[in-house]
Specification:
Blueprint (H helix, E strand, L loop, with lengths): L1 E4 L9 E3 L36 H5 L2 E3 L4 E5 L4 E9 L5 E9 L4 E9 L7 E6 L5 E7 L7 E10 L24
Antiparallel strand pairs: 1-7, 2-8, 3-10, 4-9, 5-8, 5-10, 6-7, 6-9
């Protein structure tokens, strides 16, 4: 796995990595510039890990090799669940969190030799408006994957400076009806 995060404070990266049939080793390396350090934590805890919700597991859809699928989200969605797996074939994908036109906020390049034994699950923070998750199956056409991207936390009380948002169409102005 190779991960790029534009702002690790605003959008920290967290993933669940399956490690069947021990022993397993996980290495974390910062390949960025020396001026850009990061803090990392690895927890081997089977009881308190984040897991995909039943809604996430039931909403998966196939993405053929070489294809991509986009998942746009409403501004009220603060985080999304991403779950990728295969039927036992290799899993080779790129997950991109985009805000605005082709403005990558997070990019995860992922490879595992068995996407059934070692599926991928993470929760991506999606603060602000215009968030789109793009899943690209970078494998050949013979290796489809199943992807599920669903809201994890929806901010029901989302407001703008104490002013509740309106669904009314506004042409020009601030959008607050002034």
């Amino acid at each position: 796995m190779r991960v790029y995060v534009e702002d690790g404070k605003l959008r920290p990266f967290s993933a669940v990595i399956e490690t069947p049939r021990s022993p397993n080793t996980v290495a974390i390396r910062n390949v960025g510039q020396m001026e850009l350090p990061f803090a990392a934590e690895l927890v081997a805890d089977q009881d308190n890990i984040d897991q995909p919700t039943p809604d996430c597991l039931s909403s998966s859809s196939p993405i053929q090799g070489g294809a991509l699928r986009t998942y746009p989200f409403d501004p009220s969605v603060d985080s999304v669940q991403v779950f990728l797996q295969t039927d036992g074939r290799p899993l080779n994908a790129r997950i991109e969190l985009i805000q605005g036109p082709n403005n990558n906020k997070q990019v995860i390049e992922l490879y595992t030799e068995d996407g059934l034994d070692r599926p991928f699950f993470c929760i991506l923070g999606t603060p602000g408006a215009g968030n789109v998750v793009r899943i690209v199956n970078t494998a050949p056409i013979e290796f489809p994957l199943a992807a599920s991207v669903v809201p994890e936390f929806i901010n029901e009380g989302m407001s703008y400076g104490g002013i509740e948002p309106s669904n009314d169409v506004v042409i020009g102005g601030t959008g607050f009806g002034w």
